[in-house]
Amino acid sequence: xxxxxxxxxxxxxxxxxxxxxxxxxxxxxxxxxxxxxxxxxxxxxxxxxxxxxxxxxxxxxxxxxxxxxxxxxxxxxxxxxxxxxxxxxxxxxxxxxxxxxxxxxxxxxxxxxxxxxxxxxxxxxxxxxxxxxxxxxxxxxxxxxxxxxxxxxxxxxxxxxxxxxxxxxxxxx
Length: 173
Ligand code: SF4
Ligand code: SF4
Prior knowledge:
two-stranded antiparallel sheet, Alpha-Beta Plaits, elongated, 14% strand, alpha+beta, 173 residues
């Protein structure tokens, strides 16, 4: 009598376990099944680059020049002090009549931005008193070494290439 009851309980437990397992498998597959009918959201980047807002400032910095070619940066280091990530290094030097680089008394002898640190917050741009520093819309920043991520002044004075032409893309080969 005892043996029969134990065997009944065992079969009941097995049946309950099987039903529970099947329900869970069904729930899992229902997620997959629902996904089949959802629209495809794969982005074809960099073949298709979604347009940015006309005044989007979300990418690499640019050091600007005056119309006469002199640099706007006066090496004051305010951008470096404003940077919360300590990503900017500036070393100023005096202009001379023989060697004039900027329109001010001083210029940036060394200007570096470390893009492994930069969080694109724009505080450096806000701090700059001469509008020498601006953010562009070129967010395509990829590096092969830590050294490559540190942009020097000559790189920052060069306007970035258009989006979609970064090395490694079809256009940027
Ligand atoms: S954008 Fe922000 S994090 Fe990047 S260099 Fe400027 S202040 Fe620093
Ligand atoms: S970019 Fe602007 S804030 Fe930074 S050192 Fe040059 S002038 Fe000063």
